[in-house]
Amino acid sequence: MDSRSPAAEPPGIRAGLCASLAALATTLPALTQPGEAAEAAESIQRIARSLRTSGALEGRPELAEQAEAVLAADSRGIREAAARLMDGLAAVARRSADADGELVLLIQDDERLGQAIESALRAAGRRVIRVPTAAAAWELLRRQAAGLIVLDLILPDGDGRNVLLEIRSDPRTAAIPVFVISARFGSRPRAECFALGAESYLEKPFDLEAFAVQVSASMSRHANQAALARRDPVTGLPNRAAFLEGWVGYRGAQPPDTRFALAILNLDHFQWLEDTWGRRYAESTLRRAGVRLAMTLRKSSLLARWDGAEFIALFAGQTARAAGAIVEDALRGFRKVDFGSGTGQPLNITFSAGVVDITPGQSFEEAIAQADRTLYVAKASGRNRVVAGDAESIVPVQRVLLAEDDAAMVRLLTRHLGREGFEVLAFPNGAAALAGAPASGAALVVSDIEMPELDGLSLLGELRAHPEFRHTPIMMLTAMGDESYVVRAFELGADDYVLKPFSIREVTARIRRLLRRPCVAGVPIAS
Hints:
Elements: H1 11-27, H2 37-54, H3 61-72, H4 78-99, E1 103-107, H5 111-123, E2 127-131, H6 134-143, E3 148-152, E4 154-155, E5 158-159, H7 160-169, E6 178-182, H8 187-195, E7 200-203, H9 208-229, H10 240-253, E8 260-267, H11 270-277, H12 279-296, E9 302-307, E10 310-316, H13 320-335, E11 351-358, H14 364-380, E12 386-388, E13 398-403, H15 407-419, E14 422-427, H16 430-436, E15 444-447, H17 456-465, E16 474-478, H18 483-492, E17 496-499, H19 504-516
Parallel strand pairs: 1-2, 1-3, 3-6, 6-7, 11-12, 13-14, 13-15, 15-16, 16-17
Antiparallel strand pairs: 4-5, 8-10, 8-11, 9-10
Helix pairs in contact: 1-2, 1-4, 1-9, 2-3, 3-4, 5-9, 11-12, 12-13, 16-17, 17-18
């Protein structure tokens, strides 16, 4: 039983199965021909071996068993084993044709030849539509895509060479392989057709079985090339082109009232990472980040690398709020991953994300622009966070976690930093600050040292041990000016040490400097 969904598997796999079926159909009769049987048996076993090593039989235990039977068969049993494998391939090809079936468009007005070509291609598992004129072909191509075109040069409504030129000039059809068939002999029409972009040129009459094999091989090759062209070489994820194609397919296949949400995710401080560790290491980190996102964003309908250190995800049937919660869960898991392979020290990186609803009637370009604006809000609010909703109504606010037991100092800092655009979350002691820190979304921590329950140095040590705060800037704001306290604070990971009494303008300037500084957990900061 074939456990794969035909519509979900790569088109190159389907095309490869059809190519193998066509090749077996051509080779099998030679087993009964004197002097050809041994060579035919070797050819059949090579085809079976190719199927086994290509990955096409993964998830198809019956086909895999039939291929192994062909490889193990002797000269007396190979015909029966090959026939069983052909039957299995034909069944899979029929299901693929019903589900998706890369279409072969046959432009041929000769009824008898057209039926013969259709029969040969359908026997190889292909879905074929035949039209008698160029006008009918263009009408069909406006409604659906074709995987290959078979074009007769002599048509009732024009010269096939003009049709070939139009096919190659139209962006929608320019990449489709075209097989030209013609009764015109000689090198000039052949050379002209190849110059115009024909994949193959066959003169009538031609071997239909060999033709079917050639068509299947060409479709397999082009399907694999198309799949590679839509795959990002660094992360292995779909690329921008594949995402845009997938979006068009999704929107067209879903009911008109289906909700969609769009998320753009950008790795924080990635340029600094590349500048510090080099491009090769940065690409390795990007690849592992893509794998992690693919694992944690399985509820997304599409996930792709969009550009640079940026990823994009589409959520069908989800609001921005619901999709934002999914991305937030992914971020929590992402923070705990050590990406530090090869550096000899841990590396925890984060991402920022903007998530928006795609509203009815909105163009995809508009949705992308809106998601970009929302991502900017997440970045401007301190990074390492997810912002979901309309960016126009969101003011970027950076949160400062303040651990301070002096109420007057709390009022002073809260009032002044609030006027400077910061939101201050104040806690009266180190224990309360430690308990509230994980859910605070704080971009920076300011802590006194002398506090009840848990002092500032102990809080500093605990925060640096927490995976979400290894990279968060921490400023010690204290009256403890003894050298031993200063040294100990920096040993525990403090980023700055300010003595009371202080200038509030200087503290604000230091906070802004710390928030601008690239900071990656577990990695020394380049000054």
